[in-house]
Amino acid sequence: MGSVPLKVSHQHIHARYIVFDKDGTLIDFHKIWGPRLVRGALKLKDICALDNNFLDHLYRALGYDPQTGQTFGQGPLATAPLHQFATIVASVLFQFGLNWDEACQLTKSHMSPEMTAAPSDDEIIARGNVRSAFEALSNAGCLLGIATTDNRAATESAIARLGIGGLLLDIRCGDDNGPVKPDIAVLLELAASRSLPLSELIMVGDTVSDLAMAKDAGVGLSVGILGGAGSESQLRPYADVLIESVEEITPTELG
Ligand SMILES: [Mg+2]
Q1: Are 130 and 233 members of one domain?
Q2: Which domain holds residue 172?
């Protein structure tokens, strides 16, 4: 089957493979990661008998604003895989007087479990009707994939909750062996797996990290989704088109 005629917001394009980021693109970003970080941070503060300076420093290091509950779109909380995130947490603990080994151990026992816990029902809030949008695209012949820096267990449970597992050709996660976003090799491998040129791929994401990767790889269309971690002004320079929801990506009728 050849490329599929699609409409993305107002823009028409032919493509074969659509690769979606997960957090902030398919599910609400702010409902899950800010609250998880805060829970882990408060545990560490109590266990290590630290004060609010520790919290301020930790949140700043990870790109989170506790006043607004917003995450900085180009910061570690929004974009880094878990092992990088854990190194930053341990580094802040070290700066507050803990030995490095102890800092790593406490991060592993008290922060990492918060970040890797299976998502609960109230944490997985679909951004629009993801399932029906994916069904329409799949029925039209589009290949669909997910590329996320989150780990595989949490990703698979979110996919199950969204009801899209059977519609996905490939899922790339942050704890996989092999390339991880924003390495463009993720997109190159997905294209190569179906012998497609990069121009047949569309990348959809809510951060500069996703969209800069898409541009560098040379995909056919880089789609920024608003309302996630990245602001409109951050995303605009890297996006060919901006949308509010994946429902705006639709197959067009063949004339
Ligand atoms: Mg995202």
Answers
A1: yes
A2: 4-29+124-251
CA of 22 relative to ligand 1 center, distance in Å: 6
Question: Per-residue confidence at 215, pLDDT binned at 50, 70, 90?
Answer: very high
88 shares its domain with 140: no
The mean pLDDT of 78-93, rounded to a whole number, is: 95
Query: What are 141-156's pLDDT values in tens digits?
Result: 999 999 999 999 999 9
Domain count, the chain: 2
Ligand 1 centroid distance, CA of 110 (Å): 24
Question: How far away, in angstroms, is 207 Cα from ligand 1 center?
Answer: 6
CA 94 – ligand 1 centroid, Å: 29
**Ligand 1 centroid – CA 220 distance (Å):** 20
Show the beta-strand stretches assigned E in the chain: 4-8, 11-15, 17-20, 64-65, 70-71, 143-147, 170-172, 201-205, 221-225, 241-243, 249-251
> What pLDDT shows up at residue 255?
42
